[in-house]
Design goal:
This protein is of the alpha+beta class. The chain is built from 7 helices and 13 strands.
């Protein structure tokens, strides 16, 4: 994976994901070796490194400003969405690197879709306890029989990105359900504790197109 995105193996920076809203900062002056801190988002301006999050039904969100000079990778399951991890990632890019949200491009990768993500009353209540307004939750939670809901993480992720200032036209959601397509993607709901993981990875800098480096588009990938 490191080779495919053009960094050394020890420059593929991961975090110990804890389903919260903590952001790790992997700037040029970051610790070496990388300590793999407890966090669910990483921001970086270091062109020698790639930052990555691991998912199997949760939502991987990759962010870059239009010039590719600073990037973020965010792991957002339902707990992360409830804790506003996506908003924290956008805010960290602004705080640490001066990136205005309206200049960000967002890629939201494959995750469990609203077709398949059944949750209980306790999950809905956790969002209420976290201060999410009932009118917002009505668009994220579809009531189902027996006190269950189907949770739309795609809609919630888009709403949080746009609420943080990312322009709607700059939010690109794959809308590929990992449970529906478990033959292609890893899904915890399908395989349980034995599920594999996908990785959402991004790095500062441009990709090479026809032998020329484009500063406009950051190098990104999401692979199973």
């Amino acid at each position: 994976m490191a080779a495919s995105i053009g960094v050394a193996r020890d420059e593929m920076l991961l975090v110990s994901q804890v389903h919260e809203d903590t952001v790790a900062v992997a700037s040029v002056d970051r610790p070496r070796p990388w300590p793999r801190p407890k966090a669910d988002a990483i921001v970086s301006n270091d062109p020698t490194a790639a930052i990555a999050v691991r998912v199997a039904d949760c939502v991987p969100v990759l962010l870059s400003d239009e010039s590719g000079r600073a990037v973020a990778a965010i792991h957002a399951g339902w707990r992360g969405i409830a804790a506003r991890a996506i908003i924290a990632g956008v805010g960290a890019l602004q705080t640490h690197y001066g990136i205005r949200p309206e200049r960000l491009i967002a890629a939201v990768g494959p995750s469990i879709g609203p077709c398949c993500y059944e949750v209980g009353e306790s999950t809905y209540q956790a969002f209420r306890d976290a201060g999410h307004h009932a009118s917002v939750l009505e668009s994220w939670f579809e009531p189902r029989p027996a006190g269950k809901f189907h949770l739309d993480l795609w809609r919630a992720g888009r709403d949080q990105l746009e609420g943080a200032g990312v322009m709607p036209d700059n939010v690109h959601v794959a809308e590929l359900c990992t449970k529906t397509h478990a033959d292609v993607f890893h899904s915890y709901r399908v395989d349980g504790a034995g599920a594999g993981r996908m990785i959402g990875v991004i790095r500062v800098g441009g990709v090479t197109i026809d032998g020329r480096r484009s500063a406009q588009y950051p190098g990104t990938a999401i692979l199973a």
